[in-house]
Amino acid sequence: MAVSVRRDSDEFTLSSDNLVALSPVKVGMLTFLGSEAAFFGTLIMTYVYFLRQTIHGEPNPSQVFRLPTVLAASACLFSSSATIYMAEKALRRNSRQTFLGWWGLTIVLGVLFLLGTMLEWNDLIGRWGLTISRNLFGSTYFTLVGFHALHVTIGVIVMSIVFGLAWRRQITERNETGVEVVSWYWHFVDGVWAVVFTLVYVVGR
Amino acid sequence: MAIAQREPALERLPWTSVLHDWVTTVDHKKIGIMYFLMAVVFLVIGGAEALVMRFQLLRPESKAVSANAFNQMMTMHGTTMIFFAAMPILAGVANYIVPLQIGARDMAFPRLNALGLWVTLFGGILAYFSFATGGAPAIGWFAYAPLTEHTFARGPATDFWILGLLVSGVGSVSGAINLVTTVLTLRCPGMTLRQIPLYTWMAFWANVQILFALPTLTAALTMLLFDRVLGAHFFDAQAGGSPYLWQHLFWFFGHPEVYIIVLPAFGMVSDVIPVFSRKVIFGYEFVAASTVAIAFISFGVWAHHMFAVGMSRTADIFFGAMSLVIAIPTGIKTFNWLATVYGGRWRMAAPMLFSLGFLSMFVIGGLTGIILAVVPLDYQLTDSYFVVGHFHWVIIGGTLMGLFAGVYYWYPKVTGRMYSERLARWQFWLFLIGFLLTFGPMHISGMLGMPRRIYTYPVDRGWALWNQVSSLGALIQAPSYLIFVWNLLISLKNGAPAGDDPWDAWTLEWATTSPPPSYNFERIPIVRSRRPLWDLKHPDDPDWNYE
User: Fold this and answer.
1) Quick check: B234 and A46 CB within 8 A?
2) Residue A162 in contact with residue A175, Cβ under 8 Å?
3) Confidence tier at B40 by pLDDT (50, 70, 90)
4) For a tag site, which of A45, A169, A176, A193 has the least CB within 10 Å?
5) Is the pLDDT of residue B409 over 80?
6) How far apart are CA B330 and CA B333, in angstroms?
7) Pick from B60, B3, B218, B37: which is nearest to A42 by CA?
8) Mean of the pLDDT values across residues B7-22?
9) DSSP of A125-157, one letter per residue?
C-alpha cells in the first residue's frame, strides 16, 4: 500500500511501513487479554505454589473429583471454540442463518459448561463439605475455577447480546470487528481452561 | 468548524452546565486535567499525613501521636502517594499530551477513558472511607500478611482499603489498555514507531507495564479479600497458607510499579532537555531501547525487596544481579541526557531547572539503590530508614522532580498562559533544600540502626538529631508544594499569553493552539521525522535528511 502525499512544495510517499492501519478495537482486545493472562497467571501460579500441600489435605483433589462430569463439561467448552470459528466464517460469507446457528450453538455449549461446573460444585459442597474456607485446597480451587467460570458467564452474556443483535439484523460491516473480538475473548477463555484443566484435574490429582 | 463556534459560548453558560459538561466529557484533555486535579488533592492529603509523621518523630519518646494513629498515617501516606497521587497525575499528563504528540484527535476509546477517571476517583474515596469506619488500616502500604488477617486487622477498614485498590486498579488497567491502543493505532500518517516523541514512548512502555503488573496485585488483593471475608486461607499460616506468597505477589507488582511511575518522568525530561539545550537528543535510539530494556527487566527484580526473608542463595544471587543489571539501561539514559545538556545553549527556565535537579538527584537515588542490591549490605540496611531515604530519593527526586519539569513545560499549552517564573524558582529552591534535608539524614539514621515504621524511639540511640533535621526539611518542603499549586492557579489569571509555541519546541503538541481546540488539529498532520515542527519551521533544512 502506498499513498502519495503533497504538502507545500514537497512530496513524499507513505509506504505501508509508516501508514498505521491496525484496528483500535482489535488492539484494545489484545491488550485487555494480555492483562487477563497476567491475572490468571497469578491465580495459576498460586495454585501450583500450594499444590504440594493441597494434595495431602482432607479432603484433597484425588478424593473429590468425578472425572465424567468434568470431561463432559470440558468437551463442551473445547468444542465451542470450533463452533464459534464456524460462526465467524459464516459471518464473513454474510450468511446470517448459518451464523445464528453456530453462534447459538456456542452459547448453548457455554451454558452446558457452566451447568457442569454447577453440578461439580454441588457435589463438592454437598457431598464433601469442601468450601472455600474448608481448607487450602478449597481456597485455591474455588478461586481459580470460580474466576474462570465468571469469565465464561461474562462470555455467554456478551455472546447473547451479539446473538440478539444478529437476530434483529443489526450486525453490519461497521460492527463486525466487535463480533470478531468477542470470539477472540471466547478462544482466550477456552485456552485458559486448557491450562486450568491440565493443572487441576490432570497434574494436580 | 461548528465545534469551534460553540466552544467560546460555553464559558457564559451557568456553572451547572459547565459542571455537567466536565462530568460527562469524553475529551482526553478535560479528562487529563481532572486526573491532574484529583491527584493534586491527594498529593496534598498524602503530604499532610507525612507531616503528621515527621511531627511525631521530631523528638524521642514523643507522645504527640499514638502508635495506632501513626501506623494509620503511614499506611495511608504510602497508599495515597502511589495509587492516588503518582499514578493518576501521570495518567492525567499522558492523557493530555500523548494524543497531541502523536497527532491524534482523541484517545482510542474516549468513553473507556472517562470510566477510568471516575473509577480511579471512586477507588480513592473508597480507600479513604475506611476513616469513617473508626480508623484507617494500620497495615503499611505493602500490607504484609499476617498483619492483614482478621486477627490483627479487625474491623472493616482493611476491607475498604482492599476494595479501594481493586477499584482504582480497574481504572489503571482500562487507562493502560486505552493508552497502549492509542499509541499503536492512532499515530498520524508517517509517524513510525521509531519517530515517536520520547515522552510518548516512555509513557507507552509504562502503560505496557501496568497491563502486566497490576493484574497480579488485583489477583493478590482478591485472595486477601477472600481470606478476610469468605474465610479462605491463602495467607493464613496456621491453615497452611503462606504470608511469604503475599510478599512475592505484592512485589511482582510492586517493583514494576516503581518504573511505572518513573518512566513517564524520564520521558518528560527527555523532551524538556533537548528543547532547553537547543540540541537534538543524544542517541535517541539508545534512550528508546533502554526504555524497553527497563520495562522488561523490571519484571525480574521483585524479590530484592525480600532478601531478609531468607530465600535460597540462588534466588538471592539472581535477584541481586538483576537489580544491578537494571541499573545499566538507567545509566545509559543518564549519559544520554548529560551528553544532550553538554555543549548546549541552555535556557534556564523552570522546566530545565527541574530537569537538571532531576538528573542530579536521580543519580544519587540510583546509587543508593545499587548499594541495596548488594545482598549482604541489604541484610544490614533492609527495613531501616536507609531504605526510606533511598526510595523517597528516587520517587521524589526522580518522579516528582521530572513531573514538575513536565508540568511547567506543558502548562502554557494546557492553559494558554505562562506560569510565574519567579514563583517557580522559589518553589524549586525550597523544594530542593527541603528535599535534601528531609531524606539525606534518613540514610544516616538508617545506618545508625533506626528501623522504618516505628512511631517513636528512645533517647539514647543518637537518632534524634537526624530526625530533627528530617522534620525541619519537611517543614521547608511543605510550602514549596503550596507555591506550586498557587503558581498554577494565579497564572491562569495573571500569566502572560503564551502563544502556540513559547519554547520554540519541535513536537506536534506545539503545532496547535494553546489551549488546543477539542478536535486538537484542524488538519491531521503528516510526519516525516522525529521533530515534525522543526521540519515545518525549517523547510530548507528538514530533519529527515539526517535521521
Assistant:
1) yes
2) no
3) very high
4) A169
5) yes
6) 5
7) B218
8) 78
9) HHHH---TTT-HHHHHHHHHHHHHHHHHHHHHH
* B contacts of A27 (beta carbons < 8 Å): 108, 180-181, 184-185
Task: Break chain A into its structural domains and give their ranges.
Answer: 22-203
Query: Which chain A residues are Cβ-neighbours of B184 within 8 angstroms?
Result: 20, 22, 27
Per-residue pLDDT at A9: 38
Q: pLDDT exceeding 90 applies to what percent of chain B?
A: 94
> Is the overall model pTM greater than 0.90, yes or no?
yes
State yes or no: pLDDT of A10 exceeds 60.
Answer: no
The cell numbers describing A14, all together, are 507513505
Radius of gyration of chain B (CA): 23
Average pLDDT, chain A: 90
A22-203 to CATH, choices 3.40.1190.20, 3.40.1790.10, 1.20.120.80, 3.20.10.10: 1.20.120.80
- Tell me the DSSP string of B166-233: HHHHHHHHHHHHHHHHHHHH-PPTT--GGGS-HHHHHHHHHHHHHHHHHHHHHHHHHHHHHHHHT---
User: A89 pLDDT exceeds 70?
Assistant: yes
CATH number, domain B22-545: 1.20.210.10
Flag whether residue A169 sits within 8 Å of chain B, measured between CB atoms.
no
- The answer to whether B521 and B103 are in contact (CB under 8 A) is yes
> Domain limits of chain B?
22-545
**Exposed, middle or buried, B43 (CB in 10 Å: 0-12/13-18/19+)?**
buried
Least confident of B130-134, B410-414, B499-503: B130-134
Task: Tell me how far apart the alpha carbons of residues B49 and B305 are, in angstroms, rounded to a whole number.
Answer: 24
DSSP-assigned beta bridge partners for residue B451: B384
pLDDT for residue A100: 97
Side-chain-side CA neighbours of B310 within 13 Å: the count stands at 1
Give the residue carrying C-alpha cell 452459547.
Answer: A107
Instruction: Name which of B146, B272, B143 is nearest B199 in CA terms.
Output: B272
DSSP-derived 3-state class of residue A12: strand
Q: Which among A24, A132, A135 is the nearest to B181, CB-wise?
A: A24
Pairing of strands A2-7, A10-15: antiparallel
